[in-house]
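Below is how a single chain appears once it has passed through the pipeline. First comes the sequence as given, then the structure the pipeline wrote out for it. We keep one example in the README because the format questions we get most often are answered faster by looking than by reading.
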Amino acid sequence: MKLRNSAFIIFLILIIDQYSKVFVKTNFILGDQVQVFSWFKLFFIENEGMAWGTVIPGEYGKLILTIFRILAVGAIGYWLLDATNKGKSKYLIIAIALIFAGALGNIIDSVLYGVMFDDSHNKLATFFPQDNYGTWFHGKVVDMFYFPIVEDYMMPSWVPFIGGKEITFFNAIFNVADFSISTGVGILIFFNKKAFAPVKLPANVKFSKLDEEDFI
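Resulting structure:
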């Protein structure tokens, strides 16, 4: 699989991800919900940390987290380039491209959104305002997709630990970038053998013993 194909996947995901985030950010007030189907809502929240709102405490926690994300994306980008140059499996290359695109999409939020938007509390945010809500590297990640397939279900009292409590399944709120990362990881898990299959060389390619050792 050629690098330009991976670049197209990454570009497409970034466009969809950023368009959806900017649309929600400029048309929803923080906490707004729109019922699309009984099992699907658009629910605008902002995530200051990693998955499930995990944060690094302290004055420089957000900055450290953003820098870590940038370094991680750099490593993933190198992995993608290396896998492409070595002719690795399409499963592997597509998975890496999806993970790279998702990670980069959320980095854009973290790096830029603090200066691109003003606050979304009790009002619609504006694009490139005079009074932005944050600084460089201190933006919040926009999440909006909510799939409460089972919502406010009361568990029977006899169920251990959660008996008599209301539960919601699935209660995570995510964005296109998160979905891209999850899909890429899913490919690596469920198609592991195909993703990490040895590179198949053309039948007419012959190596000397020294070449074979170098190749391995």
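DSSP finds six helices and six strands in the chain.

See the next section for the split statistics.
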